[in-house]
Amino acid sequence: MEYLADPSRLDTVLGQLETVRKSVPGNEWLNVPCGQ
User: What angle do CA 26, 7, 17 make, to 5 degrees?
Assistant: First the structure.
């Protein structure tokens, strides 16, 4: 939603998502095939 409100912030939003991704331990990731 943040990107839709201001598309010029895409780099910032992607950086924030990467920070969250790195903070979640691998054993907590879901193992769901794409499209399921």
Answer: 10
The tokens for 2 are 């943040």
| Assessment of whether the complete model's pTM goes beyond 0.85 | no
- The beta strand positions in 1-36, using DSSP E, are none
* CB of 9 closer than 8 Å to CB of 2: yes
CA pair distance 21, 36, nearest whole angstrom: 20
> CB–CB of 3/9 below 8 Å?
yes
Q: What is the pLDDT of residues 1-36, one digit of tens each?
A: 777 888 899 999 999 999 999 999 989 988 888 876
